[in-house]
Amino acid sequence: MSPEAPILFFDSGVGGLSVLGPTRALLPTAPIVYVADSAAFPYGTRSEAEIAARVPALLGRLTERFRPRLAVIACNTASTIALPFVRAALDIPVVGTVPAIKPAAEQSRSRVIGVLGTEATVRQPYVDDLAARFAADCTVLRHGSAELVQLAEAKLAGEAIDPAAVAAAVAPLRGQGMDVVVLACTHFPLLAEELALALPGVAQIDGGSGIARRIAQLTAAQSWPVQPPPGIAVFTGVGPNVQLATALAHIRLTDIRHV
């Protein structure tokens, strides 16, 4: 394995950056290719059949182009629908992103937890299975919000976010005794401050740190560059505006490309 072989992060937009951050903290010199499937954004409003077909095909082409050592589906919706198909299609390790229901149940005192994701994610049987296995004694509130995904993208692109819009998007979760909410969309940690205002006293849990640890385990015996190379950000459709490009540069994703 060449030290220059990158880790490839894949999402429909910029939500996967919430997974990239913890990974960079553990593997600071790892070469990074970050892919935003902006041509199909947002995944949460698309059909399961479309996602199951599109994601493996696109990741197959990206793997041929960038030759990563490992791929990360940094998107809950894509992971809960397409992860088995991607693993069958690729000959490299693939790490998925699934709702952090187990740690949420372990932390909850009220035994009422929330799963806040896209509409596509919260209705998946995979979530049923996680809730049954790890939160059987909890009331699990599910809520899907496409609005929050758009707000997270807008925030990173430099737009001002109205706290009232975030509060309205999570209103169905309030007043039911919930003390922990699972951020089951990688976009939502980008709105952590706004969500804290909208859901006061509710702890937020996401899978970013766990994914980073898994990536580190899978690559433990591999070599890395001494100095980190410039990171690559790839967009399949509309590319970043000036504000988003600046934000990407701040996290060392300076080589912007389109496919």
Short summary:
This protein has 259 residues and is α/β, with parallel strands linked by helices.
Descriptive notes:
With 259 residues, the chain is α/β, with parallel strands linked by helices. The protein contains eleven helices and ten strands. The strands form two sheets. The protein has a six-stranded parallel sheet with strand order 4-3-1-2-9-10, sandwiched between helices. 49% of the residues are buried.
Topology readout:
Layout: E1 7-11, H1 17-26, E2 32-36, H2 48-66, E3 70-73, H3 76-89, E4 94-95, H4 101-107, E5 112-117, H5 119-122, H6 125-134, E6 139-144, H7 146-156, H8 163-169, E7 180-184, H9 192-198, E8 203-205, H10 208-218, E9 231-235, H11 242-250, E10 253-258
Parallel strand pairs: 1-2, 1-3, 2-9, 3-4, 5-6, 5-7, 7-8, 9-10
Which residues form runs of ≥5 with pLDDT under 50? none
Radius of gyration: 18 Å
- List the secondary-structure elements in sequence, H or E: EHEHEHEHEHHEHHEHEHEHE
The largest sheet is: 6 strands, parallel
User: What would the average pLDDT be, to the nearest integer?
Assistant: 95
Distance between the termini: 25 Å
Question: Order of strands side by side in the largest beta sheet?
Answer: 4-3-1-2-9-10
Principal-axes shape call: globular
Q: How many individual helices?
A: 11
User: Per DSSP, what share of the residues sits in E-state strands of 2 or more residues?
Assistant: 15-25%
Specify the helix fraction band: 40-55%
Count of DSSP strands: 10
Q: Which structural class should the secondary elements be placed in?
A: alpha/beta
